[in-house]
Amino acid sequence: MSEYAIKAENLQVHYPNFELAVDQFYLPSGYVMGLIGRNGAGKTTLIDALLDSTPAHAEHCELLGMRMDRQERLIKNQIGLVSDRFIFPNAYHAMKLIRRIGPFYDQFDESLFRSFIKQFKLPLSKPFGEFSAGMKAKLSIIFALAHHPKLMILDEPTANLDPVSRREVLNLLYEFMQQEDHSLLFSTHNTADLDKIADYVTCLENGRVKFSSSKETLMENIQHFRCEGKMPKSMKEFVLKPKATDMGWEGVCTRASQLRHLPVEFTPLTLEEIMLAQDLTYEDF
Asked: Which residue range or ranges hold the ABC transporter domain (predicted)?
């Protein structure tokens, strides 16, 4: 097993109105990376560049220890890709997917696919084009899982799912990650999904990496604070959006783990709340 499921260095994409420039992007094997950022930040462009499906230049880029320009078939056999740009022909139904697309994968498991279809109560003979957006997302995810990939790459997979279906999908992904050689890149606006399963988080802004860290480090360092009276001088440079209260001060601190000796109350934030701290930079933690 390669040390990294994804390893990219000096990855660049140039469009007339947008530029992606990522110095380094690493996903260690066996872990979940959450990819977050506003619409237009470059998340889908980054995924396309990693998959060599858009004109890109990279000093070094490997998936599962292999290069797409040399071992494309081997890589794609071991990757499950799910995008909000649904790729199955509208006329295809589940049985046709088994016959026409399943054989492209060396390890496509028809029995597993059928069990997923039954579990999610999806029709076998209804054309894909007549599915709701949520049904399309479910079918795309279970088809990707059915060929036993080692790396799942998901671009907004739960955007159209109701809460119950989202939980079911997250449970599937959790089961997928129980094997130590499995890895997951999960691009989403629903940061609550990442609160549950992510090991690492990378945030893009305007085609650049704004921060990249383990989720544990983020959650330990970037926390809400509240203090009575004057704010301790030693923490002022690590404070975002301070606000005066009747009793003292509150706001977001980027070095909470190092300042717990101070007479300050720290409270963990969700990933969504961390994203809303707009002045965050990589150097902050």
From this structure: 6-231
